[in-house]
Amino acid sequence: MLDRSMAPAFRQVGKLQLPKNIHQKVLSCGIPLTEVNLGTQDVVRLEVVFTVGRAQERKKLAARSCLSMMREGTPSRTSAEIAETLDFYGATLGTSFNLDHSSFVLYSLTKHFDKVLPILADILAHPVFPEKELNTLVKRSKKRLKIDLTKNDVVAYRTITELIFGTQHPYGYNSFPEMYDALTRDDLMEHYERLFHAGNCQVFLSGKITDDLFSLIDDALSQAIRPGLKVEQPLIVHSEEAPGKRKIVLEDKSQTAIRIGRQLFNRHHADYLNMNVLNTLFGGYFGSRLMGNIREEKGYTYNIYSTLDPMLLDGCWYIGTEVGNEFVNDTLKQIYHEMAVIREELVDAEELEMVKNYMIGGYLTMLDGSFNVSDVVKVQILDNLPMTYFEEMVEHTRNVTPEELRETAQKYFLEEDMWEVVVGI
After folding, report:
1. Is 70 exceeded by the pLDDT of residue 305?
2. Nearest in space to 104 (alpha carbons), one of 227, 224, 267, 230
3. Is the dihedral of CA 97, 103, 104, 105 positive or negative?
4. What is the pLDDT averaged over residues 298-315?
5. pTM, 2 dp
6. How far is the C-alpha of 377 from the C-alpha of 209, rounded, in Å?
7. Directed axis angle between helix 402-412 and helix 272-279, to 10°?
């Protein structure tokens, strides 16, 4: 009989590596397709990803707005008809936008895939960008923005990213009502026709994949997606302003939002893997230094965190929290104190081992199932990383030393390099 008074034995996670059932193919139109065939249920996920983000815009907000509007109908299907057909077959079609990529994500039962794939192909080939729906999108976006600008945390995030990157940087500019008002159907059409083609496209197929799916996808997407040459990434202009402090007053708020951060780098940088571990230890999980001090010991906040945000062309690191107004000054003091400690003192072996075990447990979940594995592979491919990157990241996490973490902190955790944003009363 199981003795529930005894904790289960602790086991170290063994070697982690990507499964072997990953195949890279090429569609007839030249688009690379990566297949992860690991599913146990009769479900597949098809992702069509275009390296089309803010860096390629000629009109601000065109990238996100174009992607949203592409689902609003084609010459042969209204948006309502698209939704009704997908619902009938138990499928979902979503869009995903980040600062670097615009994606379509189709989930379907394998047996109905041939019924819903033509809908995605039609959207990719013949979006009509109806004027009425664009007006609705503009009104809805402006209304949401008006509400967001009353929230401390939103204003703090907008401000810190603008300061870190600069207003002319594609990752740094913020949306304003007049930008939405300036968008036209011609802007969206121009963005689509210039960028949504085979040269900027990658396809990812995952789940329980049958032999005929590749042929279906090849036929549909090779006809739907126009040929084109890969668009070169633009030269990014960085802000020349020296880091400093910003205070923004929003009345009648019981809490104040704090953001502290700096410009950093993407996953190709030599210090990225060290910084990944350092960030986790400092503020990247529930047992982090920031949580232990600001939440557990001081009781100033429910949540405090630090985030390492690597993107295709750049990156940043920042700390975020919301605290009672009376705790703002000491919270700032304690944050900078923790930075100083981690710059000056070696992390002890027990704390570092706990962080490593936490991170490796997270890596283990990244290999749980076909869709998760496909997400790992997708990051490697879209970020132009080697297919061995995941294994290298795991081994680096296992082997990083306290000395390497202190050296990394001495480079990047300097108070004079940080922007500080405080939003509240």
Report:
1. yes
2. 224
3. negative
4. 96
5. 0.93
6. 17
7. 90
